[in-house]
Backbone:
């Protein structure tokens, strides 16, 4: 109608709005649409819907609007129109209530709703596929597809098929792989025979077989994603997870449905290799064996066989693994790029075979297998290790020489091997165990030469070589080897210690000059070394051994000046220097050093043996001054000698007492014995006193006075000797110094008794006064007789006391026998037990 909707509206209004008025508007829209007067058509349809939204053909008008907007490329408006149409003619809508009895209108409305509900999600989906970045598009598409499926749950059509396909693609894009797999599986299991012929407008429909394959792929993607995100690439944990179980269930499902599919080999491969990747080697062996048997010409046959061989290898089925690797070697070598890897795998398998023999203690065959590996695969990266193990196994088999030879070949044949040092050490150890020390030393020296800066070579190897030479009794070579450290490693931390060891070896061999040369290198070149003090101290000790007392004494003094803090060695230096000065006759220096030694003892923390000996020896110097005195001069001379004796007696006693005070057993006992000897010596000197130029009464008077003083000195000596005997008894000590004290004690009783007997005889021999009356002479004789008898009585008492002392201290010696003899001679009535 000319004038469009407005004219028609005015006309029909003038006609009283006839019943067919809506039909007019509808026809105007349809004709304008068919004649491409799209805007007029839109105006007619909108006017119609605005005037009577429950008009029976309103759904067709709404669909017309969608079509027109689509033709006008007003995509968003068209999509809004679809959404309105789907909602406006739903089963609970006003239009549906009014037209429910009009079956034709309802059927047509349902068809039109059906169409737009399909187009709504497709629009969102396609928009996303076209690159629109709106993140909600896929969610809207998913919701639209679900609404479509929910609205038409009983529908069986290619639309439904394609909706599931679209959902599968959508889920794949958003990485919802299990949902994608589910949708593809729906497609694969749907009964398409009930859907009829595929409409011409259905493009890109995926076949059921391809859908099934896609389902498997999606479950594999789900598994891979979980491996990374859930199991953090722990293939073993992932294998036990539900994602892997679901994937394998899909594989089985696909295999049962499409066992002859062109992709079945690939599907089987993926599933089989999954066992391998998850380290499920027993399962992998079964699945890979089945796979290579069913598909011997599989495009990935090499990978399958490699995985199978590796699974066998890891599972300890080495012979079977070797068989598979050798098959691969025959196929790939020498031209394929995988040849090197395969050879390495064969070698690794042989290594495991040999290792198994080794663990089973079949060392001989293990060694042969290792050697075969080296011969056949000399250049693989484990060949050096195989050579090493061949040597170890040969040694374990008892073929020690062969074992060492093979080990030494490691460094020779594989100059870049990390096992070179270990192999040389093992070879040297074999030689050491077999007591082939020179061979061991040669290996150690080669180790030092080849690896001069390695912690297991270098300077350490010198020590091992020196030790080998020592065990071979080649002391000269041992010492020279240690000394070579000074030339090879002048700044090495171990060099001073090695030089010191050289000195020790030379010293033990009594090559004292060589030893001192080595020691001098230590303290002169390495004064801060821990070995420097010992090295310097060894110089005077060796000079002592050479008898060079003067230089030894000087060297001791030099040591004290250099290392005054080492109290033990300083004490020994003072002592030894004192002894040297003493032997050289320099008593002043000797006494000075002995005094320094004793003075240093207090607070030193050193056991007192050296200080005690020094005190003893100082006392001995004074003792010797006393012992050489002879009272055989004139009275004046003897008086001077007695004074000198007394002057030396006091320091002698003081030093001996100090030796006892230090409480070191040997020197305390010796000093005690010597103090007793000192008084015995004085007694002896007094007993032998003679005064030149005297005669008559004066001579007798001096003799009697001298003889009378002897018992007092001997009593003092006896008391001192008893101290040692008391210590021996109370502490149950056995010592030659205690035994000697017992002998000396008995000798004092013999000496004292003899002195008393001699004194008794002297009284009888005293000249009587001349010119005296007979009475006076008689009286003098009587007095002298009484004095003589008194001395005899004292002698008898002395001898009896001596026997009691002998019984107390369990003494039975020659002196006791003399006592018994004298007692019987003086008192035959004495009861002697």
Residues:
């Amino acid at each position: 109608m000319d004038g469009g909707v407005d004219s028609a509206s005015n006309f029909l209004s003038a006609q009283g709005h006839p019943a067919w008025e809506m039909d007019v508007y509808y026809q105007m829209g349809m004709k304008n649409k068919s004649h491409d007067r799209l805007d007029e058509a839109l105006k007619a349809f909108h006017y119609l819907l605005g005037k009577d939204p429950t008009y029976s053909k309103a759904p067709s008008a709404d669909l017309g609007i969608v079509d027109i907007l689509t033709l006008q490329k007003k995509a968003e408006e068209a999509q809004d129109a679809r959404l309105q149409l789907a909602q406006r003619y739903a089963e609970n809508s006003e239009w549906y209530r009014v037209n429910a009895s009009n079956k034709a209108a309802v059927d047509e409305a349902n068809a039109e709703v059906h169409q737009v509900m399909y187009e709504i999600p497709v629009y969102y989906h396609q928009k996303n596929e076209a690159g629109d970045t709106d993140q909600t598009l896929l969610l809207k598409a998913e919701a639209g597809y679900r609404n479509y499926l929910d609205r038409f749950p009983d529908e069986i059509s290619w639309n439904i098929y394609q909706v599931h396909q679209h959902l599968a693609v959508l889920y794949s894009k958003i990485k919802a792989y299990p949902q994608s797999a589910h949708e593809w599986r729906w497609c694969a299991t749907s009964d398409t025979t009930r859907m009829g012929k595929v409409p011409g407008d259905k493009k890109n429909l995926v076949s059921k077989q391809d859908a099934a394959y896609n389902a498997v792929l999606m479950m594999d993607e789900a598994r891979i994603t979980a491996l990374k995100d859930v199991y953090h690439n722990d293939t073993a944990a992932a294998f036990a997870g539900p994602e892997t179980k679901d994937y394998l269930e899909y594989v089985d499902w696909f295999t049962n449905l499409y066992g002859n599919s062109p992709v079945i080999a690939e599907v089987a491969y993926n599933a089989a290799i999954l066992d391998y990747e998850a380290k499920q080697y027993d399962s992998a062996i079964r699945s890979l064996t089945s796979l290579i048997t069913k598909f011997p010409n599989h495009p990935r046959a090499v990978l399958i066989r490699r995985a199978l061989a590796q699974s066998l290898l890891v599972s300890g089925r080495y012979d079977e693994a070797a068989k598979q690797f050798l098959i691969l070697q025959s196929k790939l070598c020498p031209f394929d790029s995988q040849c090197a890897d395969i050879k390495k795998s064969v070698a690794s398998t042989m290594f495991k075979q040999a290792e198994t023999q080794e663990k089973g203690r079949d060392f001989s065959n293990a060694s042969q297998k290792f050697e075969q590996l080296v011969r056949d695969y000399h250049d693989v990266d484990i060949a050096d290790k195989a050579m090493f193990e061949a040597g170890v196994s040969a040694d374990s088999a008892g073929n020690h020489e062969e074992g060492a030879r093979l080990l030494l070949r490691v460094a020779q044949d594989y100059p870049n091997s990390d096992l070179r040092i270990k192999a040389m050490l093992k070879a040297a150890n074999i030689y050491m165990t077999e007591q082939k020390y020179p061979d061991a030393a040669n290996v150690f020296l080669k180790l030092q030469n080849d690896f001069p800066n390695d912690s297991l070579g270098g300077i350490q190897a010198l020590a091992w070589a020196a030790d080998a030479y020592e065990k071979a009794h080649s002391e000269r070579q041992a010492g020279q080897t240690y000394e070579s450290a000074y030339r090879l490693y002048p700044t090495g931390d171990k060099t001073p210690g090695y030089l010191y060891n050289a000195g020790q070896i030379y010293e033990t061999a009594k090559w004292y000059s060589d030893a001192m040369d080595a020691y001098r290198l230590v303290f002169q070149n390495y004064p801060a070394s821990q070995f420097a003090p010992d090295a310097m101290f060894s110089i005077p000790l060796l000079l002592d051994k050479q008898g060079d007392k003067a230089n030894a004494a000087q060297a001791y003094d030099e040591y004290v000046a250099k290392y005054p803090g080492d109290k033990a060695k300083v004490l020994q230096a003072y002592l030894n220097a004192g002894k040297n000065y003493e032997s050289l006759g320099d008593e002043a220096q000797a006494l000075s050093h002995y005094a320094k030694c004793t003075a240093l003892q207090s607070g030193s923390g050193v056991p007192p043996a050296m200080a005690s000996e020094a005190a003893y020896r100082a006392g001995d110097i004074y003792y010797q001054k006393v012992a050489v005195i002879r009272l055989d001069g004139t009275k004046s001379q003897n008086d001077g000698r007695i004074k000198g004796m007394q002057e030396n007696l006091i320091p002698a006693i003081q030093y001996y007492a100090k030796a006892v005070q230090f409480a070191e057993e040997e020197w305390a006992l010796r000093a005690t014995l010597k103090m007793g000897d000192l008084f015995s010596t004085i007694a002896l000197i007094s007993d032998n006193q003679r005064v030149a130029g005297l005669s008559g009464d004066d001579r007798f008077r001096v003799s009697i006075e001298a003889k009378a003083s002897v018992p007092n000195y001997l009593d003092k000596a006896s008391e001192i000797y008893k101290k040692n005997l008391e210590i021996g008894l109370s502490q149950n000590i056995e010592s030659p110094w205690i035994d000697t004290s017992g002998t000396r004690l008995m000798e004092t009783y013999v000496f004292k008794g003899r002195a008393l007997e001699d004194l008794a005889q002297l009284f009888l021999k005293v000249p009587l006064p001349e010119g005296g009356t007979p009475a006076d002479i008689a009286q003098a004789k009587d007095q002298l007789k009484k004095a003589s008898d008194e001395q005899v009585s004292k002698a008898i008492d002395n001898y009896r006391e001596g026997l009691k002392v002998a019984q107390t201290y369990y003494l039975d010696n020659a002196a006791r026998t003399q006592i018994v003899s004298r007692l019987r001679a003086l008192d035959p009535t004495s009861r002697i037990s």
